[in-house]
Amino acid sequence: MEMKKYVVRLLEYGSDKYAHLRYLPAAARVLDIGCGDCRRLRYRSYYRDDLMHYGVDIHEEENCRKYLSEFVNLDVTRDKLPFAEEYFDLVMVSHVVEHLSREGFLFCLKEIKRVLRRGGYVYIEFPSEKTRRFITAKTLKRLGCPVTTLNFFDDETHISLYGLQELAGILEGEGLGICKCGDIREPVKKLLSPFLLVIGYALRDESIFTGSLWSLVNWASFLLARKQG
Predict the structure, then answer these.
(1) What domains does the chain contain, in order, with CATH numbers?
(2) Which residues 6+ apart lie within 8 Å of 165 measured at CB?
């Protein structure tokens, strides 16, 4: 586990994915919407091991509860979050909004604002708008590449594609001030990407190959916003 921690921290050095964690108070409450298998939570623990994690997902992954203070199984597009107002210091929404209808996302966003404390943060990560123009995974697979997705439409569950300014405007309309936004930068991983692509290709490892390719082309974007006090 210690070795994995240092490998992750090396590859993610200088990344925008975890920089916002330094703004949180000790023992802060963090809600992960669409927590899945809690992999992202485990990576966050490599930077802050004092945080209290809560998870929400429409499906429950095996063993995810052991990483959480509480897990709630619900549909965020129509079910209210069962938490008190201003309960969380940070709400994470990582690669979720692209799977929701726009109406469903607006419903979810109002709930996020309700449970977020004044001065608290919301972090949203999602596919960059430019991914609609990327080569498809189907084409890359014909070339022998072990890839899962690259073009936005490779994933049939993708519904909504947002531009940064569009999504920022939606958050600002809900009284959430934008602190930072842009493409996800992973300078170390990007530098190592050609080497990692070769390894992923040789091992036929979709995770290594796809992750390295995403990093190389700045596949994802992010927004960090703060609830006005």
Answers:
(1) 2-127+155-185+219-227 (3.40.50.150)
(2) none
